[in-house]
Input
Amino acid sequence: MKTPSLGEFEELVLLMVAALHDEAYGVAIMEGLESKLSKSVNISAIHVALKRMEEKGFVKSRFGGITSDRGGRRKKFYVITAFGKEALDQQYSVRTDLYQQIPKISFG
Amino acid sequence: MKPTPPHKALRFLRWFCRKDYLEEVEGDLIEIFENQYENSPSAARRKFVWTVIRHFRPEFIKVFGLSQRLNSSSMLLNYVKVSWRNLARHQLYSSIKIGGFAAGIAACLLIALFVLQELAYDKHYKASDRIFRIVRENTWNGDLSKGAHMPHPFAATLIQDYPEIELAGRYNPSVSFGAGGNEVRRIDRKLSQHEENIAFADQSVLNILEADFLAGNPNKALNEPNTVVITESIAQKYFRDDDPINKIIILNNDESTQLKVTGVVREFPLTSHFRYQFLISLAEKEFFEGEASNWRNQNYITYIRVNPETDVSALEEKLENMVQNYILPASIELGVEDDVSWVRTTQLKLQSVENIYLNRSEVGDGLVHGDIRFIWLFTAVGLFILAIACMNFVNLSTAKSANRAKEVGLRKVIGSNRSHLIGQFLVESILLSAVAHVLGVVISLLCLPYFNSLLGAQLILPENILWPVFIIIISIISTGLLAGIYPAFYLSSFKPIKVLKGKISTGVKSSALRNTLVVLQFTISIALIISSVIIYQQMDYILNKKLGYDKDQVLVLNGTHTMKDKIYTFKEELLQVPGVSSATISAYLPVDGTRRNNGGWKTQGMEDHESVSGQHWAVDADYIETLNLEIVKGRDFSAQIASDSQAVIINESLAKALAISELNGDEIYNWLGGWNVIGVVKDFHFESMKNKIRPLGLFMRPSRRTMAVKVSGSEIRNTLDAVTSVWQEFSPNQPIRYTFLDQQYASMYSYVKRLGNILTLFSGLAILIACLGLFALSSFIIQQRGKEMSIRLVLGASLQHIFHLLTGNFVGLIVIALLIASPLAWYFVNAWLQDFAYKIAIHWTIFVYTGVFIMVIAFLTVSYQSIRTAMMNPVDNLKSE
Output
């Protein structure tokens, strides 16, 4: 089976999910990305990316418990699947590979 | 207290968002909102709204769109399937339902075609808002009269005096001046052919009425005297492959006046009031000496085209100057007091070209006019028939509701709600409506030629098919909805439990509605039938009334004037033919289409203004004998008495108007001089029955356009052959053209006959559709009460009793319909009869006969099923439960 493609923003979100391990839910991912990228990210974009990756099987989700925050709404936590990890690895190796091939010339 | 996010945005989110995503999305949004709220409440709100909007995208939107569409499209198929099964199961009902509807639609379409064509008259001119006809209005003794004829110099003066008038032109269609029917031939050919559509016209009339030139100079064709412009079909007929331009044609074998063809125009459209085929130039034409400066005689219909942006009502007011400066002075100069005061009342009006055709008989212009009343009548009849067909539809649907009740109940039980059911029944009725429309279109296409001949019209299908298709689709949907809405609401209101328990009311509740619809249907049908019966009676009265002359077996020969003086020997020869008993030469015959004139008659002592307006007919000595007029006083003309050349025979009306009671050798006078009254004939109908018989005087003068020949005996065919061969001897280059007087008489009233035919057709259709409905309805009700009847039979009810029970209801309904329809029909037909001076009295028996007739038909319709039920073995009906 062909590995589904992983877009740039999706890749970022997926990395964040993996990094936050078990504590990754919408707002946390957004805040994490905002601090790393130093720019504002809209939650809707993250939701879209999460839903797509869940469909592709890169992440799986579960609901958390009810709290009094969030208007009584449960959090939805995401964790990376083995398949998602594989996709990340593959992406990483392609990039490293290509990076290695850059000739050692001086840009000075 | 926790801050609350914007209410509306949240509601919107909850409305569109997928249920399985909503909790997460809403939670995240609220968390972000709460975090931000501490910094800036308003920014948080804005952000929240914005984010909600950002979520409004396909990934998050609820599937209501998709899943429901899927559901309803598969349900749609189910609806269609169930509809089809229902149709197939009840073939009788279905065919009545669809067939009746289709017949109604076909009738409606044909009527629409007719009405639209009538309304389309004279709408095709590019500058139609700037084209006007000049009309005069005079009020004399309280009577308003309108005319379209203007003096010879009128048009030219208009152009001179009114800068806002761009073009002005006249035409003269008067038979008296040689327009109308003439014998036409090419100068280089022998054979003359008869042509009807000949008129004299100015070049500018062609420009104003936008004649479409195929050959010749469009702006100069009629600028020279003795030129003629012909239409395409005439060019084809006379010149075939030759170029017609500059060829010569002549009229009535008269080689002294040669007409040069200077233009060929496309045929004027069917929907144009102006449909001449030969237009002879009026340039430098005077029909009598000094006409070009004569403001007294009015013989020209005058059109103008005004400049764009002209204030038409201001122009109309300024036309008063034409009366003051030209027409009135001419009348004063003549010095007849009455005429002057009559002319003083003249008002000139501008009549838009679009209004000419439908302005029935108001303006005396000798044109064929449409009748706006007919258009209304037809529209009403068409709508009535459609209404009857729709009612059938409603009636049958509700009546059949019992059969559908279980289906409705079951559908409700398995989760269908009311709107689904309404949808289902509407889909079904739109489907039926579509089938009926397609069928109706096919029927109307097939019937179009027949309808045309019935109507005496030339209806053609519109060239542009887009609009009709659009309208038909609209009509499919609207009549489908209209006819389906009641059944839909009614059927969908069934309570499932009651229905499934078998406790349905079998549509008894709606019997009031059904009865009303039946009454309405029969009211319309009965009114139509009564109207057509009365119209036929009037027609019969006209055709068989004693006219005062004998119209049977009189042959009328047309175009005899081309024989000139040889006509007298021709007449002598004709009298030798066996079977010809007498003949008379006169252009004045008592039917339309022959010559007429009008002028004053007076006695010795009378002043000019006291003179009696009447006809002055030039006849010959055999006129009274040939037409078998009855002489009540005095004697007939005699060719032997020389003084009879100054003698006059008058009709009773003239005798009464001039107070001549005894013949004492009195003289009476017209513009030709004095005439010695030698006889009085009984009044005879020489004009339409719409008018009272007017005063008339006959005197002996040549007028050779037509000849009336009285034939006798049974060998008419042989006599005709003999007459034809005598004709060929005298006029070898002109085919004989004859009619019979009675036919010509009948054709004067062909419109009455057509009206009768059409109404009969439609009343037949109406009664047929109504009866179809009644039949289906009665068989339905009988089916519902079948068990009841069987039990009654078992308990000893007689056949008669059962029959009475089943038919009594319908008889009552039809009596009600008769009671409503009779005064309605009486009112309308009576209004129509007011057109006629000579008319039948509407007798009450008509209503009775129509009532009995309808009753019998309805009775037969209902009784078929009733008798079947009454004759049935009750066991068959009762053994199964």
